[in-house]
Amino acid sequence: MTKNKEKEKKKDNGEVNSIWGGRFSSKSNDLMDAINVSIDFDKRLAFEDLRGSIAHVKMLGKADIISQDEVEKILGGLTEVETELLDGKFNFSRELEDIHMNVEGRLREIIGETAGKIHTARSRNDQVSTDLRLWVRGASENLQKEIIKLMKSILGKAEENADTIMPGFTHLQVAQPITMGHYFLSYIEMLGRDIDRFEDAQKRANECPLGSCALAGTSFEIDREFTAKELGFSRPMRNSLDAVSDRDFVIEFISCLSLTATHLSRFAEDLTLWTSDQFDFVRLPEAFTSGSSIMPQKRNPDAAELVRGKVGRVNGALISMLTVMKGLPLSYSKDMQEDKEQLFDAFDTVLLMIKVMTGIISDITPNKKNLLSAASMGYSTATDLADWLTKELNIPFRDSHKITGRIVSYAERNNLKLNEVPIEFMHKLDGSITKDIYKVMEVKYSVGSRKSFGGTSPREVLKRCADWRIKLHG
Ligand code: ARG
Predict the structure, then answer these.
(1) Whose CA is nearest to atom 3 of ligand 1?
(2) What are the Cα distances from residue 43, in Å, to 83, 132, 342, 367, 456?
(3) Would you give the end-to-end CA distance of the chain in angstroms?
(4) Strand partners, 167
(5) If residue 174 lies in a helix (H) or strand (E), which one and from where to where?
(6) Active site residues
């Protein structure tokens, strides 16, 4: 007998599936199982599924839809299921397709037929949407905690390097000198907005679908406010069709993940670049680098490169989910089962990226000497020179820009640094230029002078660091 023929034989109790087998006479095809069974990944929803069931059963009792004895019996059984899950003793069965039917199936084994009452006024459609919303809430909180840890570790480096001078780039060309503390603070700002985004998305996701049933609600007199409150949701969802059929909260969460991943990817790119011999700006902790199997001298920034690269799969998950949902007819369709693997993978990936960046940043060592000399390259203080002309001699900035351009070009032709250009040459451009102009060409002076709010001066950086210390509670 082939495997499938064997499967076609009904179980002893005459049903092919103890949960929904009533209407079916033959077992599913192996390929059907391959495409349909989700327990391998949705087992991650086990605890959320239990929470949802517990709230639902309590509500059924409170609304007199099932008896108090039945409530006790079911809750007792669910507690046993929970213990098995916690002890790793729960036997997940592919025959039971998904986590919802696995939990109910096991409950039936433990307490018998009463288990069937758990699904009164409920469908897997509102159940899975509830589970997933609970899961996203937990994941979002978890992630925000890790982002805060990362922010604290960056903040430590920002404070340590409030006056470490480095080149600031635009177009990857040296633009103006900045302080490294200022650079680090920029990532704290980005991550701070990421946290705001996760919180904001959570406000919309935190509504309860439970009680929407398959799609149309139910004729049982259920109490949706009760279950919503019991599960920590702000309110029950107002439309049962919407409740079972949108996954906008998954998409929104992944899009927040994508942005965080994008920020980390840029950060990781700078670090990767900066460890190259050509830059030699920072040294990454050895524990986050690796050697080459052929070139003994190499120390590669693999961890930073992988943080840079992993954004690809996170963005992939976002596009996958947008594509899955696009054009789906209302209300629930099985297509939506595709949400979980994308969601889980995007979350796991970003969580790892955050933790790895925290590890890298807490142990990063700036090469201050190199940073300083690189900061003086590329006529990085030319803007300071133009600003001086405008400030001290009242020359309109456009003209100051021109004069400075001539000075830079003279320096370039004669292979001089900006502060080596003789005053005699400057006098040819404007007779009133004084020797005071030389001091603004010093990088230290330059960064110190940029005291505008949000600017690069060490004083300003320390002020902003102090703000963040308070916000991040030390
Ligand atoms: N495993 C399913 C999912 O993830 C649960 C909902 C199934 N609903 C149904 N009507 N078949 O979407």
Answers:
(1) 337
(2) 15, 12, 15, 48, 49
(3) 69
(4) 177
(5) strand 173-179
(6) 171, 292
On whether the CB atoms of residues 162 and 462 are closer than 8 A, the answer is yes
283-328 tens-digit pLDDT: 999 999 987 777 767 789 999 999 999 999 999 999 999 999 999 9
Ligand 1 centroid–CA 36 distance in Å is: 9
Strand 207-208 relative to strand 235-236, pairing: parallel
* Ligand 1 atom closest to the CA of 332, numbered from 1: 10
Among 361, 360, 347, which Cα is nearest to 310's?
Answer: 347
Residue 325: which H helix or E strand, with range?
Answer: helix 302-325
Q: Percent of the chain at pLDDT above 70?
A: 95
Average pLDDT of the chain?
94
Residue range 368-382, pLDDT digits in tens = 999 999 998 878 899
Which of 104, 332, 59, 50 lies closest to 220 in space, CA to CA?
Answer: 59
Ligand 1 pocket, CB under 6 A: 38, 42, 98, 124-125, 128, 332, 334, 336-337
The residues facing 365 across adjacent strands are: 283
Q: What is each CA distance from 61 to 114, 230, 231, in whole angstroms?
A: 13, 14, 16
Backbone angles phi, psi at 174, to 5 degrees: -55, 130
* DSSP secondary structure, 303-322, as one string: HHHHHHHHHHHHHHHHHHHH
Set out the domains of the chain in order of their start, with CATH numbers: 30-120 (1.10.275.10), 125-373 (1.20.200.10), 376-473 (1.10.40.30)
Identify residue 258 by its one-letter amino acid code: S
Q: 134 near 48, Cβ under 8 Å?
A: yes
